[in-house]
Amino acid sequence: MKAGVRNQFGGEIVDIKLGSVMAQVTVRHGDGHIVSVMTRDSVEEAGLKIGDNVKALFKAIHVVLVKE
Questions:
Q1: Would you tell me how many other CB atoms lie within 10 Å of the CB of residue 60?
Q2: Is the pLDDT at 13 greater than 70, yes or no?
Q3: How far apart are CA 31 and CA 68, in angstroms?
Q4: Is the CATH number 2.40.50.100 carried by domain 7-58?
Q5: Of the ranges 3-12, 27-36, 48-57, which one carries the lowest mean pLDDT score?
Q6: What is the mean predicted confidence (pLDDT) over 14-43?
Q7: What is the C-alpha to C-alpha distance for residues 28 and 9, in angstroms, rounded to an integer?
């Protein structure tokens, strides 16, 4: 699939938590993790499963930074 999104990170799915409507998918990228929340239907329609290699695409108009 080709997308016009420049902010991309590849990784491996290491966890999927399925709820009744929503799902949480965790992707390992290097030493860190990226977590995506999406509908359960989207996870099932994409055929996502643990061990799959995927790309996380980021398209956002706002990134908020808060000093710790």
A1: 7
A2: yes
A3: 21
A4: yes
A5: 3-12
A6: 96
A7: 10
Stated pTM of the model: 0.81
Phi and psi dihedrals of 32, rounded to 5?
A: -115, -175
Q: What is the band of 1 on the pLDDT scale with cuts at 50, 70, 90?
A: low
Long-range contacts of 29-34 (CB under 8 A, 24+ apart): 29/56, 34/9
CA dihedral 17, 22, 24, 25 (to 10 degrees): 90
Closest CA to 14 of 40, 39, 35, 42: 35
